[in-house]
Amino acid sequence: MVSCGIVCRINMKWIVRLIYGGIVALPMYISCNTPTPQPLSLTDSSANCWTGSGEYQIPVDSVGREIRYGRNLIAHTAQYLGPKGSVAAITNGMNCQNCHLDAGTKPWGNNYGSVASTYPRFRDRSGTIESIEKRINDCLQRSLHGKAIDSTSREMRAMVAYIQWLGAEVPKGKKVKGSGIQQLSYMQRAADPLSGEKIYVTQCARCHGKQGEGQPDANGIEYTYPPLWGIHSYTTGAGLYRLSRLAGYIKNNMPNPVNYHQPLLQDAEAWDVAAYINSQPRPGFDFSSDWPDIKAKPVDHPFGPFADTFTERQHKLGPWVGMGKGK
Ligand code: HEC
Ligand code: HEC
């Protein structure tokens, strides 16, 4: 290349483009299960996955003001609703963004890409048709170990406005590729908390702490590194307490800030470290009215009663192969 001159460089550039376009982009496109909404969003490196619009694409008008407030609430929840919150002290101090990365815009970062398009929808966990408001309150109560807020409150309206704005280009009823958390393939063996502990010590403890306690920022308002277990962490009723959710989240996002293009952990390592984290103590949650139809419980739901005869331990840690229903 170096001795090759400008003509050759141009040719090389085109060859590279053609190879990229033909070999890489086409299968990526096919696997992408279109339609992928383009206009509002997308960085080229993640062209096959939905990526949400950024802060600077929010319109500068009164509608935009509400959307921006919603985004701030999601990115910096604790500033408003945490133990030292300016609006109300009703959560454990985590931010929505700790789990819904980049304010719910990151591909496979538990983003909100398919929320506006698929809600209201029936959910097996409650056995009811749920609105976006109900789903947000679920996370407030279960993931942020907090209180539900009124669906007419300024804060709820703003978060809903932001989530609807993010997903406005997605056709009704469609799920976009890369939204939510990736479902990893199940292993033949059970997830192993002991090998997970070794991974935790080498890959995670430097930020999240030896006891999973996280690290608050200098003002003690938000977390620089959020807790992974203990009294300030998510409850046993939270989505991340299901191993498939936690493993899928970790695989494409941790150690922060890896992404799905270049994950660091193997799938098996993600399952094992997830098993370790979810074997540690955390706040309980009264989920007695969840899953009114127990046959609809996901296979990795860790609490009985179940419609089959497998133990709670096997539901929690696997092996799930052959146990039936996945996500
Ligand atoms: C501890 C992690 C965590 C925190 C904090 C959290 N969530 Fe979630 N949230 C999840 C998980 C896990 C799911 C389920 C994802 C899945 O099953 O694919 C979820 C699902 C959702 C969904 C539905 C997504 C979909 O595609 O169906 C919405 C909306 C949502 N959360 C909003 C919020 C809001 C708003 C906050 C802050 C008030 C918040 N969450 C805080 C972990 C969290
Ligand atoms: C370089 C620091 C760093 C390392 C190392 C790291 N994380 Fe994180 N982790 C973060 C940050 C920061 C967030 C919150 C991201 C945000 O708010 O944007 C986070 C969020 C999380 C969350 C969701 C929020 C919560 O507290 O429940 C989980 C789960 C998680 N990390 C697991 C892990 C695991 C497992 C490892 C090791 C494989 C790991 N992290 C390594 C910095 C790190």
Helix content: 25-40%
SSE pattern:
HHHHHHEEHHHHEEHHH
Which structural class is indicated by helix and strand composition?
A: mainly alpha
Q: What's the number of extended β-strand segments?
A: 4
Ligand inventory reads: heme C
What is the alpha-carbon Rg in Å? Answer: 21 Å
What is the straight-line distance between the termini? 49 Å
Q: What's the pLDDT, averaged over the residues?
A: 89
Strand content: under 5%
CATH class of the largest domain: Mainly Alpha
CATH superfamily of the largest domain: Cytochrome c-like domain
Low-confidence stretches: 1-46
Number of domains: 2
Number of contiguous helices: 13
Strand count, sense and closure of the main sheet? Answer: 2 strands, antiparallel
User: Can you tell me the CATH architecture of the largest domain?
Assistant: Orthogonal Bundle
Keywords, please?
327 residues, mainly alpha, Cytochrome Bc1 Complex, Chain D, domain 2, 2 domains, two-stranded antiparallel sheet, two-stranded antiparallel ribbon, 4 strands, disordered N terminus, binds heme C
Note down, in words, how this protein is organized:
With 327 residues, this protein is mainly α. It folds into two domains: 55-166, Cytochrome Bc1 Complex, Chain D, domain 2, CATH 1.10.760.10; 193-317, Cytochrome c-like domain (Cytochrome Bc1 Complex, Chain D, domain 2, Orthogonal Bundle). The protein has helices spanning 5-30, 62-75, 77-81, 96-99, 101-104, 115-118, 132-142, 154-166, 193-203, 205-208, 243-253, 267-277, 312-317, and strands at 121-123, 128-130, 215-216, 223-225. Helix 11 (243-253) packs across helix 12 (267-277). The radius of gyration is 21 Å and the shape is globular. It binds heme C (HEC) (2 copies). One heme C binds next to helix 4 and helix 7.
